Automatic annotation (TrEMBL), chain A:
Signal peptide range: none
Transmembrane residue ranges: 6-31, 101-123, 129-154, 185-201, 229-249, 284-306, 318-341, 361-392, 404-427
High-level lineage: Bacteria, Bacillati, Bacillota, Clostridia, Eubacteriales
Statement: the UniProt record of this protein carries the keyword Amino-acid biosynthesis: no
InterPro entries, sorted: Uncharacterised_YhfT
Keywords assigned by UniProt, alphabetized: Membrane, Transmembrane, Transmembrane helix
Entry protein name: Uncharacterized protein YhfT
Pfam families reported for this sequence: YhfT (PF10797)
Species of origin: Harryflintia acetispora
UniProtKB/TrEMBL annotation, chain B:
Pfam family name, one: DUF2620
Organism: Harryflintia acetispora
Name of the protein: Uncharacterized protein DUF2620
Domain of life: Bacteria
Length: 430, 120
């Protein structure tokens, strides 16, 4: 709840969304990894616009409605699911370039304005909503730091998993006892290092036959992405600026930590968020790079390294330059990344494990955080409401994603408690 | 019947397939790219992959490499697969199935049942 409504935020987000909608319209880049491979069907004429639009809408609507809205209401910071999944759909629906840009820009302006209104509404409530949302983000940093260990269990089994856990735990104990370094960063570093060592060891043992024929097929697609590089760099610059001015965050692994950092002015937390986002970016390289290479359509945020660059740069101008250059470097390296991934199949597999384990630990952390938040707001009456919202979702086919149910339950509990309070049926506990 | 598993939460996916098929379906854990040559050489009959949306990471590489006409999303995020839809996908010749990882428990039994019936 830290972002105030300002003209700068409005202009940056409006231009950003106009640009991303236009990129989706032209088939230059889309955010959703699932829309990317379907786009060539449309570009090459095998699929009509309304059909393409319905695919895009179907794949995205659940995300926009659950994680898109929940992460932003809980933190006061915009996120890519809310902005870019919508501009993917709008850009594809629009049948003219100017219309795509107009619709995208309008969506950007709408979200920034809504953010201002929500912020004002939430600060005036009798049951403290904003403090409780802080409790929601407390377990995130420590929870996220466990992802490499969960990934090792997933990919290499219990024996290596226990070994890695023991090593990381010893490192943690020593660092906490004898230094004042941010221990979670070191934990992530040690865990990821072990994961990579295990993966490369497995590949050098197994000696799989190499698949060389793929290289040539993809040269043409890579050339298409390179042709659009200036456009992509402009998009990257806008994203980095939006991250830099604090109105936007790249994912669930950074957004809660950033909200806390902006509220308390703690710069160490910004670095922590940037590190988490960087690690998530590494996990996503194989997915985004390979879908881009096989389709000729790039990601709106590229390999997502523009996010941490945006958080860390000292001012918006440096952020813009850094974001644009990052995209340029990524696009130039795409071919090399593809070749490297072909040589080490376990690294690709590690990417699947990393993405799975990040989801697992974040779902866990946000659920614990949500329970802390509802208890903070309403004691065990809050717990009753929040826990039942969770169980109702579980028992009725999980319409709300696991990743979103914690924040959704916390927000809904806050609203219900405030209504009860206005009706005189509940007295705020703190 | 042999199924290649890629995408997210592979262990969970494999356990669900084994349980639903009572061990009648063989599985091999791989990646989306790793599954492509297996499908092309006929080493496996089908591919099942999970991701957050059911249409993204789960099958996007497959769409690019074996063609859109052979791939489908059986359960989108927030939904569980419907038997009739799944049967239609299989009879239409789809061989790569994507589903949202949140719907593994609900969707795999439906998909496995339809695949086993189709085999008869």
């Amino acid at each position: 709840m830290t972002v105030e409504f300002s003209a700068l935020n409005l202009i940056v987000v409006t231009l950003l969304c106009a640009a991303t909608a236009l990129m989706a319209h032209l088939g230059v880049a889309v955010f959703h990894d699932g829309i990317r491979p379907v786009l060539p069907e449309f570009i090459e004429g095998r699929m009509k616009r309304p059909e393409m639009a319905s695919v895009a809408f179907g794949l995205s609507v659940g995300f926009i409605a659950s994680v898109g809205i929940a992460h932003t209401v809980a933190t006061g910071i915009l996120n890519p699911w809310l902005l870019f999944l919508t501009t993917d759909v709008l850009g594809i629906i629009a049948n003219r370039k100017w219309l795509a840009a107009l619709l995208g820009g309008a969506w950007g302006a709408l979200t920034v304005s809504a953010l201002g209104l929500i912020n004002t509404a939430l600060t005036s409530l009798p049951v403290d909503f904003i403090g409780a949302m802080g409790a929601l983000s407390d377990p995130v940093v420590s929870g996220f730091a466990l992802f490499p260990l969960v990934a090792i269990f997933m990919q290499f089994g219990a024996k290596k998993g226990v070994t890695a856990t023991a090593i990381t735990f010893i490192v943690r104990i020593l660092i906490v006892r004898f230094t004042t370094i941010y221990v979670e960063s070191i934990q992530i570093f040690v865990g990821v290092l072990l994961l990579i060592i295990f993966a490369i060891a497995k590949d050098t043992q197994s000696k799989l036959p190499k698949n060389e024929e793929e290289d040539n097929v993809f040269t043409e697609r890579i050339a298409r992405i390179r042709k659009n590089v200036v456009f992509l760099m402009i998009g990257g610059a806008f994203i980095a600026v939006a991250c830099n001015i604090g109105v936007f965050a790249g994912s669930e692994v950074s957004i809660y930590t950033l909200a806390e950092a902006y509220k308390t002015g703690n710069n160490a937390l910004v670095s922590q968020a940037a590190l988490a986002e960087f690690m998530r970016g590494l996990g996503f390289i194989p997915l985004i790079a390979t879908t881009a290479i096989t389709t000729g359509v790039y990601g709106v945020a590229g390999l997502t390294f523009v996010y941490p660059i945006g958080y860390l740069m000292p001012n918006p101008i440096f952020a813009a330059i850094g974001g644009a250059l990052m995209i340029l470097v990524e696009v130039m390296l795409l071919g090399l990344i593809g070749k490297f991934l072909g040589k080490f199949p376990s690294i690709r597999e590690a990417s699947d494990s990393i993405r799975s384990s990040m989801t697992t630990v974040m779902e866990f952390a946000l659920l614990i955080g949500a329970i802390n938040a509802v208890v903070k707001m309403g004691g065990y009456t809050g717990f009753f409401i929040g826990a039942m919202i969770y169980f109702i979702n579980e028992m009725t086919g999980r319409r709300i994603m696991k990743m979103a149910i914690g924040p959704v339950a916390a927000i809904a509990t806050g609203i219900i408690l405030n209504i009860l309070c206005v009706l005189g049926l509940f007295v705020p506990i703190a | 019947m042999k199924i290649a598993i890629g995408g997210m939460k592979k262990n969970e996916m494999e356990a669900a397939i084994k349980k639903a098929s009572d061990g009648k379906i063989e599985t091999v854990i791989t990646t989306d790219i790793g599954a492509v040559p297996m499908l092309k050489k006929g080493e496996v009959d089908y591919y099942i992959g999970g991701c957050e949306s059911g249409g993204g990471a789960a099958i996007s590489i497959l769409i690019g490499m074996i063609g859109y006409s052979k791939c489908c999303t059986v359960a989108k995020n927030g939904h569980v697969a419907k038997k009739e839809e799944v049967e239609k996908f299989i009879s239409d010749g789809k061989i790569a199935f994507g589903l949202a990882v949140d719907s593994i428990d609900g969707t795999i039994p439906v998909l496995v049942e339809a695949l086993l019936e189709h085999q008869k």
